[in-house]
């Protein structure tokens, strides 16, 4: 069994407390996102705050929230955040470790605090964890602070995308496909409740899905700059990559 560092107050002392939670400027997650984020902040700096509404992605694990969200953020010249990556950077450990040390309830407390913090910003794209909608407070924050996009995929497609991923605590069961079906039945109504519009992921590539999102956003009044004549990143060429957490 993996051994975790412990403090005088037990294993929970190894993780930072819930507050204050600040989107991390250091650590692996920040290093992955920093170049795009800095460029987005420079590009969007001249826009008034009122012209830069937030955009939030919701959906089950494996739906493509992170990959599609990052692509859309580049087109909007918005900084991109992933609440799970930010939480890992803040705590200094991966999501499964937080689950093991604090249980799902402890993880959800931290997730809610991170979402509240990030949603107070203006002009960001945020990919939320798959279970973020379970808490009414999170749904209220997302609806109040921005436009919400539900990336919807069938349980079978989600299973195909996540079946080899060991970084998803809720799927470490004898029947991960059955677990995904149960999660879908529980969460799909909540995603629909909070969403301003729904994008069916199916077979389109990340680039195609991003364009579908952008078309909806333009109809909703978002300012969309024309694409730059550059080759797309390698990650935009195929089906949605997996999202990091439950």
UniProtKB/TrEMBL annotation:
It comes from Cupriavidus phytorum. The gene is aroK. GO terms for cellular component: cytosol. Catalyzes the specific phosphorylation of the 3-hydroxyl group of shikimic acid using ATP as a cosubstrate. One of its GO terms (biological process) is amino acid biosynthetic process. Binds 1 Mg(2+) ion per subunit. It catalyses: shikimate + ATP = 3-phosphoshikimate + ADP + H(+). Its EC number is 2.7.1.71. It holds the Pfam family SKI. Residues 1-53, 223-246 are annotated as: Disordered. Monomer. CDD domains: SK. Coiled coil: none annotated. This is Shikimate kinase. It is found in: Cytoplasm. GO terms for molecular function: ATP binding; magnesium ion binding; shikimate kinase activity. The lineage of its organism: Bacteria, Pseudomonadati, Pseudomonadota, Betaproteobacteria, Burkholderiales. Pathway: Metabolic intermediate biosynthesis; chorismate biosynthesis; chorismate from D-erythrose 4-phosphate and phosphoenolpyruvate: step 5/7. Residues 34-52 have a biased composition (Basic and acidic residues). Its cofactor is Mg(2+). The keyword Transferase applies. ATP binds at residues 62-67, 168. Belongs to the shikimate kinase family. Substrate binds at residues 84, 108, 130, 187. PROSITE patterns: SHIKIMATE_KINASE. PANTHER family: SHIKIMATE KINASE, SHIKIMATE KINASE 1, CHLOROPLASTIC. Mg(2+) binds at residue 66. Keywords: Amino-acid biosynthesis, Aromatic amino acid biosynthesis, ATP-binding, Cytoplasm, Kinase, Magnesium, Metal-binding, Nucleotide-binding, Transferase. Its main location: cytoplasm.
């Amino acid at each position: 069994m993996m051994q975790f560092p412990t403090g005088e107050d037990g294993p929970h002392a190894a993780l930072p407390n819930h507050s204050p939670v600040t989107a991390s400027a250091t650590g692996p997650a920040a290093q992955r996102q920093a170049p795009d984020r800095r460029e987005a902040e420079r590009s969007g700096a001249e826009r008034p705050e009122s012209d830069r509404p937030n955009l939030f992605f919701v959906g089950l694990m494996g739906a493509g929230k992170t990959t599609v969200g990052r692509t859309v953020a580049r087109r909007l010249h918005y900084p991109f955040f992933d609440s799970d990556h930010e939480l890992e950077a803040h705590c200094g450990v991966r999501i499964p470790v937080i689950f093991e040390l604090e249980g799902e309830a402890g993880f959800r407390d931290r997730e809610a605090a991170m979402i509240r913090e990030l949603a107070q910003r203006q002009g960001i794209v945020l990919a939320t964890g798959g279970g973020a909608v379970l808490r009414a407070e999170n749904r209220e924050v997302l609806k109040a602070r921005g436009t919400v996009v539900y990336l919807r995929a069938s349980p079978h497609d989600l299973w195909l995308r996540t079946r080899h991923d060991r970084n998803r605590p809720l799927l470490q069961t004898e029947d991960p496909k059955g677990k995904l079906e149960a999660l879908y039945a529980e969460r799909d109504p909540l995603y629909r409740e909070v969403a301003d519009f729904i994008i069916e992921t199916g077979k389109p590539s990340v680039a195609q899905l991003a364009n579908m999102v952008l078309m909806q956003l333009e109809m909703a009044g978002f300012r969309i700059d024309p694409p730059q004549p550059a080759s797309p990143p390698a990650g935009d060429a195929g089906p949605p990559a997996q999202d990091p957490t439950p």
